[in-house]
What does this fold into?
Amino acid sequence: TYKLTNDLDLTLGARWYRVTSASDTGTQAGFAVGGQEFTIPGSTITETGVNPKAQINYHVAGDHLIYATASRGYRPGGVLPGVPDAPSVGCTADLANLGLTSAQTRHFESDHLWNYELGAKTAWLDDRLTVDGAGYVIRWSNIQQLVSLPCGFGFTANAGSAQSKGFELEVHARPLPYLDLAGGVGYSHAVITGAGSTSPQQPGDRVNQVPDWTGNASVTYTRMLGAGVKSTMNVSYAYVGESLSANNSPTSPRVRPSYQLVDARFAFSRDGYELALFAKNLANEHANLADNRSIAAELPGRPRIVTNQPRTIGLELRARF
It folds into this structure.
C-alpha cells in the first residue's frame, strides 16, 4: 500500500498458486453399471496461475471512504471417478453427442472471475449511523458446471462464461443507546454471456441458482433490568428472490420461488449465564434452498430439493466460565 497523498492511497498485490489434484485407480460395480465391474485409471491435474488485485481509496473529510477495486479469483479444478465407458450402460453414446470421451470426464479445470467494484463506506452522527454501498460487475469464465447425462450419470465440466451486474446497500443505525436497527438490500443480474458445448444455456439466459433480489432487516433492543440482569430482544428478517434450478431438466429449468424467513430471540443474562427463548422460521416457510442430486433421476411431480429447517421454538441456556 502506497500513500499518494494524505487522503489517497493505492494498494497493489498478487497471489501465485500451484494446485495439484490426483486420484488413485478405483473400480465401479453394481446395478447402476449393469452388474459389471470397471477399472478406473488414476487421474492427475496440475494448474498454476496468478491472481492480481488493485484498489484505490479516497478518504473524505470525516469517517467516509470511497474506493474502487479490481481483483481476480479462482476456484480450483479437480478429479472425478468419471463416467463408465461401456455401451451396455448407455453413457458412451451420450458423451459422444457432446464430443467427449469417458477419460475427459475424469477431471475439470479451475474457473475464474474478475470483480470490478466501486463503493463507499460512511459513518455519520458520531458513528450512530453507518451507510455502506457498492456497485459491481463480475465476469466469470470457464464455469464449473454439473452435466447430467440421460444415462443417469453426471460429471463436472468447464462450460461457457457469465456476467453479473448489481449493487449492495447496508445501513446500521443506533438512534437510542439501547436500540440497534440494521438493514440491507442487494440486486444481481446474472446472465450467460458465452455458451458452452456441454450446457444447453445460451447467451442471455439467467445463471442458475442466483436470486435477483435479496434483503435483510433486524431490530435489537437491550435494557438493564437491575441487579446486573440484562435483557436482549432481537427480531430478524431475510428475503431471497426467485431463481432458476435445472435439477429437473437442463432445458426447462424449474423456477425456485422467493422466500422470507423471520427469527426472534428474547434473552436474559447475568454473570456469564444466559437464558433465552428463541424461535426460528416463525412463518414456517418451506424454501427451495438448492438442488439435490442424490439419485440419478427425478420422478415427475416428486422434486428433490434441499429445504430449510421448519419452525423451531425452544429454550437455550448458556454458561461462560
In short: The two ends are 42 Å apart (CA to CA). The chain has a mean pLDDT of 90. The CA atoms of residues 49 and 136 lie 24 Å apart.
